[in-house]
Amino acid sequence: MIWLTACIIRAMVKTREEWQQLCRHKIDLVKRLIAQKEWEVAGEYMGYALECALKAAACKTLDIDSYPPIKIWRDAARQPNEISGFKTHEFDALIVLGGLSKRFSADFELNQFTSSYTGDWENRRYEGDLSTVYDEKTVIELSKLLYDSDESIINKFDKEGLW
Question: Would you give the end-to-end CA distance of the chain in angstroms?
Fold first, then answer.
Protein backbone atom coordinates (compact mmCIF):
# COMPACT_ATOMS: atom_id res chain seq x y z
CA MET A 1 0.00 0.00 0.00
CA ILE A 2 2.84 2.41 0.80
CA TRP A 3 4.36 1.72 -2.62
CA LEU A 4 1.04 2.52 -4.35
CA THR A 5 0.62 5.76 -2.39
CA ALA A 6 4.18 6.81 -3.22
CA CYS A 7 3.52 6.13 -6.92
CA ILE A 8 0.36 8.22 -6.88
CA ILE A 9 2.10 11.11 -5.15
CA ARG A 10 5.03 10.96 -7.59
CA ALA A 11 2.54 11.09 -10.49
CA MET A 12 1.02 14.31 -9.09
CA VAL A 13 4.39 15.92 -8.34
CA LYS A 14 6.12 17.38 -11.38
CA THR A 15 9.48 18.96 -12.08
CA ARG A 16 9.78 22.48 -13.49
CA GLU A 17 10.43 21.06 -16.95
CA GLU A 18 7.43 18.75 -16.68
CA TRP A 19 5.20 21.70 -15.70
CA GLN A 20 6.50 23.61 -18.74
CA GLN A 21 5.83 20.63 -21.02
CA LEU A 22 2.36 20.19 -19.56
CA CYS A 23 1.62 23.88 -20.11
CA ARG A 24 2.67 23.64 -23.77
CA HIS A 25 0.66 20.42 -24.15
CA LYS A 26 -2.45 22.17 -22.76
CA ILE A 27 -1.91 25.09 -25.15
CA ASP A 28 -1.61 22.70 -28.11
CA LEU A 29 -4.84 21.07 -26.97
CA VAL A 30 -6.51 24.49 -26.68
CA LYS A 31 -5.51 25.31 -30.26
CA ARG A 32 -7.14 22.09 -31.50
CA LEU A 33 -10.26 22.76 -29.42
CA ILE A 34 -10.53 26.29 -30.83
CA ALA A 35 -10.21 24.91 -34.37
CA GLN A 36 -13.13 22.58 -33.54
CA LYS A 37 -15.09 25.48 -31.96
CA GLU A 38 -15.14 23.76 -28.56
CA TRP A 39 -15.19 27.08 -26.70
CA GLU A 40 -16.13 25.86 -23.22
CA VAL A 41 -13.42 23.22 -23.02
CA ALA A 42 -10.81 25.49 -24.60
CA GLY A 43 -11.57 28.14 -21.98
CA GLU A 44 -11.13 25.68 -19.14
CA TYR A 45 -7.88 24.25 -20.52
CA MET A 46 -6.36 27.73 -20.79
CA GLY A 47 -6.81 28.06 -17.04
CA TYR A 48 -4.99 24.77 -16.54
CA ALA A 49 -2.20 25.94 -18.87
CA LEU A 50 -1.62 29.08 -16.80
CA GLU A 51 -1.66 27.03 -13.61
CA CYS A 52 1.09 24.79 -15.03
CA ALA A 53 3.17 27.83 -16.05
CA LEU A 54 2.85 29.36 -12.58
CA LYS A 55 3.88 26.09 -10.93
CA ALA A 56 6.97 25.95 -13.17
CA ALA A 57 7.76 29.53 -12.12
CA ALA A 58 7.40 28.52 -8.45
CA CYS A 59 9.93 25.70 -8.95
CA LYS A 60 12.42 28.10 -10.50
CA THR A 61 11.94 30.93 -8.01
CA LEU A 62 12.02 28.74 -4.93
CA ASP A 63 14.84 26.61 -6.38
CA ILE A 64 12.96 23.39 -5.70
CA ASP A 65 13.12 20.21 -7.75
CA SER A 66 9.37 19.65 -7.99
CA TYR A 67 5.97 21.13 -7.25
CA PRO A 68 4.39 20.55 -4.86
CA PRO A 69 7.49 19.78 -2.81
CA ILE A 70 7.49 16.62 -0.71
CA LYS A 71 8.93 16.48 2.79
CA ILE A 72 11.73 13.98 3.27
CA TRP A 73 10.21 12.54 6.42
CA ARG A 74 6.99 10.57 6.77
CA ASP A 75 3.99 11.12 9.02
CA ALA A 76 2.69 8.64 11.63
CA ALA A 77 1.09 6.56 8.87
CA ARG A 78 4.52 6.35 7.14
CA GLN A 79 3.32 8.37 4.13
CA PRO A 80 5.30 11.12 2.35
CA ASN A 81 3.96 14.56 3.25
CA GLU A 82 3.42 17.56 1.04
CA ILE A 83 4.62 20.82 2.50
CA SER A 84 1.44 22.62 3.50
CA GLY A 85 0.38 25.68 1.54
CA PHE A 86 1.67 24.48 -1.79
CA LYS A 87 -1.28 22.41 -2.95
CA THR A 88 -3.34 25.15 -4.60
CA HIS A 89 -4.98 26.02 -7.89
CA GLU A 90 -5.48 29.68 -7.01
CA PHE A 91 -3.68 32.00 -9.41
CA ASP A 92 -3.05 34.67 -6.74
CA ALA A 93 -1.28 32.17 -4.47
CA LEU A 94 0.72 30.70 -7.37
CA ILE A 95 1.79 34.18 -8.49
CA VAL A 96 3.19 34.79 -4.99
CA LEU A 97 4.89 31.36 -4.85
CA GLY A 98 6.42 32.05 -8.26
CA GLY A 99 7.86 35.36 -7.07
CA LEU A 100 5.88 37.19 -9.73
CA SER A 101 3.83 39.61 -7.61
CA LYS A 102 5.83 42.74 -8.42
CA ARG A 103 6.47 41.72 -12.02
CA PHE A 104 2.80 41.18 -12.77
CA SER A 105 1.11 43.61 -10.37
CA ALA A 106 0.31 46.00 -13.21
CA ASP A 107 0.54 43.52 -16.08
CA PHE A 108 -2.44 43.98 -18.38
CA GLU A 109 -2.39 40.51 -19.94
CA LEU A 110 -2.19 38.58 -16.68
CA ASN A 111 -4.78 40.74 -14.91
CA GLN A 112 -7.22 40.53 -17.83
CA PHE A 113 -6.70 36.78 -18.14
CA THR A 114 -7.08 35.91 -14.46
CA SER A 115 -10.17 38.12 -14.07
CA SER A 116 -11.97 35.54 -16.23
CA TYR A 117 -11.06 32.81 -13.74
CA THR A 118 -12.23 34.32 -10.47
CA GLY A 119 -13.43 32.34 -7.49
CA ASP A 120 -13.29 28.56 -7.47
CA TRP A 121 -12.50 28.36 -11.18
CA GLU A 122 -11.08 24.83 -11.18
CA ASN A 123 -14.42 23.43 -10.01
CA ARG A 124 -16.46 25.11 -12.75
CA ARG A 125 -16.38 21.89 -14.73
CA TYR A 126 -19.02 20.60 -12.32
CA GLU A 127 -21.39 23.50 -12.98
CA GLY A 128 -22.79 22.23 -16.28
CA ASP A 129 -23.29 24.70 -19.13
CA LEU A 130 -20.35 27.09 -19.35
CA SER A 131 -21.20 28.45 -22.79
CA THR A 132 -22.09 31.81 -21.27
CA VAL A 133 -18.70 31.95 -19.52
CA TYR A 134 -16.52 30.76 -22.40
CA ASP A 135 -18.07 31.84 -25.69
CA GLU A 136 -16.15 32.29 -28.95
CA LYS A 137 -15.27 35.96 -28.39
CA THR A 138 -14.07 35.37 -24.81
CA VAL A 139 -11.96 32.34 -25.73
CA ILE A 140 -10.27 34.16 -28.63
CA GLU A 141 -9.48 37.11 -26.34
CA LEU A 142 -8.15 34.76 -23.65
CA SER A 143 -5.95 32.92 -26.17
CA LYS A 144 -4.34 36.21 -27.22
CA LEU A 145 -3.67 37.09 -23.58
CA LEU A 146 -2.27 33.67 -22.72
CA TYR A 147 -0.22 32.59 -25.74
CA ASP A 148 -1.24 34.07 -29.09
CA SER A 149 0.46 37.49 -29.18
CA ASP A 150 3.94 38.94 -28.73
CA GLU A 151 2.89 40.34 -25.34
CA SER A 152 1.13 37.18 -24.15
CA ILE A 153 1.78 35.74 -20.71
CA ILE A 154 3.60 32.64 -21.99
CA ASN A 155 5.77 34.69 -24.37
CA LYS A 156 6.76 36.91 -21.43
CA PHE A 157 7.62 33.81 -19.37
CA ASP A 158 9.84 32.62 -22.25
CA LYS A 159 11.50 35.96 -23.06
CA GLU A 160 12.15 36.90 -19.44
CA GLY A 161 13.12 33.42 -18.25
CA LEU A 162 10.41 33.47 -15.59
CA TRP A 163 9.92 29.72 -15.58
Answer: 35
